[in-house]
Amino acid sequence: MLPLHPRIVHLPIALSVLMPLVTSGLLLAWWRGWLPRKAWAVAVALQLALVVCGLVAIKTGEADEHQAETVVSERLIEAHEEAAKLLTAGAFVILLVAAGALALRAEGAARTVAALATAGTLAVLFLAYRTGEAGGRLVYVHGAARAWAPGAPGAPPRPAGDEEHH
Q1: How much is the pLDDT for 155?
Q2: 50 and 12 Cβ atoms separated by less than 8 Å
Q3: How far apart are CA 52 and CA 47, in angstroms?
Q4: HEC letters along the chain
Q5: Which whole-number Å values give the CA distances from 156 to 22, 62, 67, 128, 152, in the listed order?
Q6: Please, what is the angle between helix 41-68 and helix 107-136, to 10°?
Q7: In the chain, what are the domain boundaries?
Q8: In whole angstroms, what is the distance from residue 50 CA to residue 46 CA?
Q9: ∠ at Cα 152 (156, 8), nearest 5°?
Q10: Residue-level pLDDT at 2
Q11: What are the φ/ψ torsions at residue 33 (nearest 5 degrees)?
C-alpha cells in the first residue's frame, strides 16, 4: 500500500498558495464596500482548513517516517518535519490574527488587523515553499519513494491484482 502522506501534503501547500490571493481579494472588497465585513469569515475558514490540513500532513508524515528511514537519513526527514511544524505554527498564528479582524468592533482596526493577516499569508507561503522543497528533496534527490517500492526492506506487500494500469 502506498503511503498516505503524499496524498495529503498537497492540501496545505495549495491553501498556502491561495491564501494571499483570497485574503487580498476579500480585503480589497471589504475596503471598497463590495462585500460586508462578515465576508472575511471566508478567509478565517480557509486559514483554519490550512491549519487542520497541516496537522493531518504532519501526522501522516510521522506515520510514514519509519518506512522512509529505511532509505533516507533520519536527519533529512527531521528537517522536513521541522519545516512542516513551523509552517503549521505560522498558519495557526495567522489564523488567530485573521480571526481577530472579525472580533474587533472598530471597523478601521479590524481592517488593519485583516491587512496584517493578509501580509502574514505571504510569510506562510514562504514557509510552505521551504517545507515542500524539503519534501521534494527527500523524494526526488534522496529517493524516499524507494522505501515503498516492491521488494524494499519493510515495504508492505502489494495485494494480488494491484498492478499499475497505464
Answers
A1: 59
A2: yes
A3: 9
A4: CCCCHHHHCHHHHHHHHHHHHHHHHHHHHHHHCCCCHHHHHHHHHHHHHHHHHHHHHHHHHHHHHHHHCCCCCHHHHHHHHHHHHHHHHHHHHHHHHHHHHHHCCCHHHHHHHHHHHHHHHHHHHHHHHHHHHHHHHHHHHCCHHHHHCCCCCCCCCCCCCCCCCC
A5: 41, 17, 10, 30, 9
A6: 20
A7: 5-148
A8: 6
A9: 60
A10: 78
A11: 85, 15
81-99: pLDDT as tens digits: 999 999 999 999 999 999 9
How much is the pTM? 0.88
For residue 3, the model assigns a pLDDT of: 85
Reply yes or no on whether the pLDDT at 150 is more than 90.
Answer: no
Q: Which of 3-17, 33-47, 100-114, 139-153 bottoms out in mean pLDDT, i.e. has the lowest?
A: 139-153
Measure Cα distances from 54 to 6, 23, 39, 73 in Å.
Answer: 12, 19, 24, 23
Output the nine-digit C-alpha cell for 1. Answer: 500500500
Separation CA 103–CA 4 (nearest Å): 37
* Average pLDDT for 126-130: 98
Read off the C-alpha cell for 62: 510521522
